[in-house]
Design goal:
Number of domains: 1
Largest sheet: none
Structural class: mainly alpha
Number of helices: 2
Number of strands: 0
Distance between the termini: 36 Å
Radius of gyration: 17 Å
Length: 66
């Protein structure tokens, strides 16, 4: 097992990477969810999922440390 003395990135870079990754994946899931909601309307579960994904998109739009 290799021992690392320093992390590969600092805390700020790691946070930006996490926000960007979550934002990108949430955008993909949101597109899929919106398509399903349009194709098969009336599912409260899908509407709630769409709402949650939109909230994630808003929360990860900009890194709060910027």
């Amino acid at each position: 097992m290799a021992r690392r003395d320093k992390p590969l990135m600092d805390a700020s870079a790691a946070r930006r990477l996490a926000f960007a990754t979550v934002h990108t994946e949430a955008a993909r899931l949101l597109r899929l969810t919106e398509e399903i909601c349009q194709t098969y309307p009336g599912s409260d579960d899908m509407l709630f999922l769409r709402y949650l994904l939109r909230m994630i998109m808003l929360a990860t739009e900009h890194d709060p440390t910027d």
